[in-house]
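Figure S4 source data
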Amino acid sequence: MRNKWFVFAVAALLAGSAFSAEKESSGMTPNLDKGTKVLEGAGVINVMGDDVQLQLSAGLLVADGLELALVAGLRDSDVYMSTELGLRAEYNLVFGSAFVPFLSAGVVWADVESDDSGIDTDAAVFSVGGGVKYFLRDNVALAVNGSYLWATDDIFVDTEDGKVQDDEFRILFSVRFYFD
C-alpha cells in the first residue's frame, strides 16, 4: 500500500512541474521538431483492485513529428506480474493546436508470471494504437493512449473471468517532457 502512495506522489510532482514552466506570449507551438528528445512517464493505478501499471520511455524525434523510443514497463498485482522492454514508433499529426493526435506501433519483449493461471513465460508483444496529447507548454504534454496488444503466447489474464489470452486492449495516461 505504501508503494502505491509513493508512485501517486511522484506522478503528482511530475505533473505539477508542468504548471510552473514559463509560458510564452506568442502562443502554443508544440516542440515536435527533428532532434527533440522526449521523456515519458505513463501508467494506471487501480487502488481498489491492487493493480499498478507503469511505463517509462526515452525517445528522439528522428523527423518532424516522428518519434522512436525505448520503452520499459511494469505491471504488478497480487496475482500477476510482467516486465517489458522494447521499442515504439509514434507519428504526431500536428495541426497547429495544443491538441496533437498521434498513431503508434511498437514491439516489446515481456516476461510474465501469474500465480493463479500458471503462467511463467516470455513473449514478444506487438502493439498498434493512437491517442491525443494536450500541450500545457511548448515542451510539456499530458497524453492518453489506447493500444491493442497481441502476444506470441497467451500471457494476458482477463480480469473478469481469469482466462488466459494472447491479446489485450490497454489505456495509459502519461506526462511527456520535450527537450531540445
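Figure S5 source data
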Amino acid sequence: MLRRRGAVLVGLGVAAVTALAGCGGAPAPATTLQEVTSSAPSPSSPSSPADVAPAAEPSASGPAGSPSPRGARTTASPMPSAASALRAGTTAPPRTATTTVTRPAAPAPGGGTGGGTAGNPAGHASVPAEARAVDTSHPTRVVGTGSPASCTSAAVVAAVAAGGIVTFACGAAPVTITLDATAKVVNTHPQLVLDGGGKVTLSGGGRRRILYQNTCDAAQTWTSAHCDNQETPRLVVQNLTFADGDSSGAGEGGGAIFVRGGQFRVVNARFVRNRCAATGPDLGGAALRVFDQYAHRPVYVVGSTFGGAAGQGGVCSNGGGISSIGVSWVVLNSVFSHNSAVGHGANPARAGSTGGGSGAAIYLDGNAMTLTLGGTLIEDNDANEGGGAVFFVSNDRTGTLSVTGSTLRRNVSRGFGTAGFPGIFFLGARPPAISSSTLTP
C-alpha cells in the first residue's frame, strides 16, 4: 500500500541540480536516428538470459519530498479479504454468480505479435477525438534509415529522450528491436508519439522495462512544482507491439510501460509476454502501470490487445494487463486474454502471505476513479484471488464501472468476486452498469 509522503519541493538548489546531472541525461543520438526538418508543423496536442535481474527504476513515489501518487491509500478502507467481504454481504464466490446476457458473445480475435490491426474486430464502441491515433505524417524524427539493422536500441532510446513525433524506417518486413536500456521520456518535451506503423516490436528481452515516463523523477527533469498534476508530457503509443518487458526488479509494476504524470494514450498496440513482480499486495500491471494523470483525465486504450493467445499474456502479482492507483480508464474495442495475477493473499496481505493475486486483466485501486469498457473482449484470464477479469476498489466508494457492448467470459477468480458479475470484484459508488454485454463464468 502506498502512503502520502511530504510536500512537493518547489525548486532544486544548484548543488542538487549538479548532483542530478549525471543521473538522467539523454543519450547522444545514434547515427540511425534521423532528425527531420520540414516546413510542415508537428501537431501540438494530443536474446538475453532470463536470469539477469532487471535494472531498478525509481519507485512510483519519486524522489524524496515529492508527492505520493494521487489516490494512494492512507489508512481507512483497505481491500477486504475474501472472508470479510463476504461477511459484509457484498461479494460471493464467482461460481455461484448469476449470469447477465443481453447480447451474443463476440468471437475471439486472433493473437500473436504480427502486423495489422490489434484489438477486438467485433467491438464497435465510438472513439472520441481525444482517444484517436495522432497524425504522424510529418514526424519530428525517424528511427532507422530503411533497413532492420539501422533500427537499433540506441536509436530508440535517443528518440524517446528527444521527444516529438517518432516513426520508424526499418524496411518492409516486421522487425523486433530489443532494447539494451529502458527508453525514458524527458519531461521538458511537451509530447512523445511513438508510431511503429504496425511493423515494429519493442522488446525488453525479458530483462528490463521498455518505456518509462515519470514527471516526479528529478533525473528526467522536474518542470513543475506540482509534478503529480501537470499537463505534459503527453505520451502516445500507437501501431506498436511491446513484448517481453520485465520490471520485476524495479519495485513497481509496469513491465512494458510505466507512466506517472502528464497524459497517456494507447492506440492499436499489442502487449505480449510482459511481466512484473510476482508478489506484493498493491503493485501490478505487467503491461501498463499508471499514476497521476493530469486533471484526473482518463487513460485511453483503443483497439489494443493484451495477451491475445495462450502463452502470450502478461504475468504479475496483480494486473496481468493494466494497473493503476487513483487513475480513470476508458478502454474501447480491445482484447484482454490469457493474463494472470499470480500473487497470493490479496490486499492487504493475509497473515503469512506476500499478498496480491487480483485483477488478472485489469487491477484498479484508489478513490475517485472510473472504468469504462466499450466493445471490449475479456476472456481466459486467471486470478489467484479476486477479479479474474476486473478488480476495482474505490476506497472512498465514489468510483464507478460501466460495461457496454462487451464480453467477459471464462475469467477465473479463485478466491472471491462480486455476486451477479462473473469475473468482477467491485467496491464503489453503486453496482456496475452493464449494457448490451455478456458476462459469463
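The two ends are 30 Å apart (CA to CA). Confidence is low (pLDDT under 50) at residues 1-31, 37-66, 69-114.
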